[in-house]
Amino acid sequence: MNVRIIKPDATLYDGPATLIQLPGTGGLFEILENHAPIISSLTEGRIRLQAEGEEEKVFDIRGGILKGQKNEILILVQ
């Protein structure tokens, strides 16, 4: 799936991923390929992103929102 993590002043990540772990307001959750459409608010915490054959990437955030459908994930963070 393709993932974009965007801050107001920069793009943190734009590329493929096989797994994303996110700090949702209801607790941690994960998104895998072919996930059902989703919109979620995010709280302060860490986004962990795994791409095939690469080391895990970690991004500290203060909150944000996520929209995902058809293996396209857009994450807007502070």
List keywords for this structure.
ATP Synthase, domain 1, about 80 residues, mainly beta, single chain, 9 strands
Structure in a nutshell:
This protein is mainly beta and 78 residues long.
Describe this structure in words.
The chain is an all-beta fold and 78 residues long. It has one domain: ATP Synthase, domain 1 (Sandwich), CATH 2.60.15.10. Helices cover 0% and strands 68% of the residues. It is built from no helices and nine strands. A five-stranded mixed sheet has the order 2-1-9-8-5, with no helix packed on it. The chain has a four-stranded antiparallel sheet with strand order 4-3-6-7, with no helix packed on it. Strand 1 (2-7) and strand 2 form a beta hairpin. The radius of gyration is 11 Å and the shape is globular. The N and C termini lie far apart (23 Å). The model has no long low-confidence stretch (mean pLDDT 96).
